[in-house]
């Protein structure tokens, strides 16, 4: 899967520009990318993390 396909799936999972932390972690695993890479892509796509499991966001 290339970078644009991954970005498309992330956008689809966060249609309002927000994604719950647990969903982002699950999606990263499904897409075969690290949590760090997921965070970088979310930042790039300007998608905010909600319901953070660590209380950081």
Can you give keywords for this protein?
57 residues, mainly alpha, two-stranded parallel sheet, 2 strands
What does this structure look like?
This protein is mainly α. The chain has one domain (3-50). The chain is 56% helix and 11% strand. The protein is built from three helices and two strands, in the order H-E-H-H-E. It has helices at residues 3-13, 21-31, 35-44, and strands at 18-20, 48-50. It has a two-stranded parallel sheet. The protein starts with a helix and ends in a 7-residue tail after the last strand.
What would you say about this model in short?
The chain is mainly alpha-helical and 57 residues long.
Whole-number count of domains: 1
Q: How would you spell out the order of helices and strands?
A: HEHHE
Helicity level: 55-70%
The mean pLDDT is: 92
Report the portion of residues in β strands. Answer: 5-15%
- Could you tell me the number of beta strands? 2
The secondary-structure class comes to: mainly alpha
Kindly report the spatial arrangement of strands forming the biggest sheet: 1-2
Form type:
globular
Distance between the termini: 29 Å
- Low-pLDDT windows of residues: none
Major beta sheet summary? 2 strands, parallel
Number of helices: 3
How large is the radius of gyration?
A: 10 Å
Topology:
Layout: H1 3-13, E1 18-20, H2 21-31, H3 35-44, E2 48-50
Parallel strand pairs: 1-2
């Amino acid at each position: 899967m290339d970078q644009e396909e991954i970005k498309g799936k992330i956008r689809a999972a966060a249609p309002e520009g927000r994604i719950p932390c647990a969903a982002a972690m699950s999606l990263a695993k499904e897409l075969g990318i690290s949590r760090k890479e997921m965070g970088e892509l979310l930042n790039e796509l300007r998608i905010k993390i909600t319901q953070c499991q660590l209380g950081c966001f």
